[in-house]
Amino acid sequence: MGIKSFQGARANTKETTKSAILVADYMTKSLITFSPEQSILEVMECFASHHISGGPVLDAQGQLVGMVSEADCMKQISESRYFNLPILEKNVSSFMSKEVETIDAQSSIFDAATIFHKNNRRRLPVMSAGKMVGQISRKDIVIAALKLSGQQWKK
Q: Do the domain assignments include residue 2?
């Protein structure tokens, strides 16, 4: 003899689908950008005055050509001391990262978190239709996660 369930009929529950939490919802849209021709000293002054640790490098047409960070500046400082050269001598294009990983504006913040975790990046340029539309950082992802803390996360 089988076991019978003594539970009553269950109410039909509608499964609600929540829209994905998009990178575009949390990215920074107004950015401080740099040009490849700027001096590394000017970039360091900008980092200090605006309390930032890096930013995108755009060419004259506004296309993303690289990223420059505090780590790139540390390279310049180290090399200038080793070769006994002034810091002013080099420009951004000499030290920027040219291989730039980007993320689409319609990607989820979970995709961005995975990229940050796997590749040890601090910021990612956000692209839409081949144009840079913003930047998302690790801090932006943490803020997004805090806003979601009471919700069930679904992709």
A: no
Per-residue pLDDT 10s for the chain (155 aa) are 566 656 666 666 555 445 558 999 999 999 999 999 998 889 989 999 999 999 999 999 999 999 999 988 887 777 776 666 666 567 899 889 999 999 999 999 999 999 999 988 899 999 999 999 999 999 999 999 888 765 555 55
User: What whole-number distance in Å separates Cα of residue 112 and Cα of residue 118?
Assistant: 10
Task: Report yes or no on 51 lying in a domain.
Answer: yes
Q: Say which DSSP state 149 is in.
A: T
- Is 42 among the domain residues? yes
Q: Indicate the number of domains in the chain.
A: 1
DSSP per residue, 47-79: HHHHT-SEEEEE-TTS-EEEEEEHHHHHHHHHH
Asked if the structure places residue 128 within a domain, the reply is yes
**Structure pTM?**
0.75
Nearest to 99 by CA among 145, 57, 129: 57
Number of residues that this document lists for the chain = 155
List, as one string, the DSSP characters of 80-112.
HHHTT--GGG-BHHHHSB-S---EETTSBHHHH
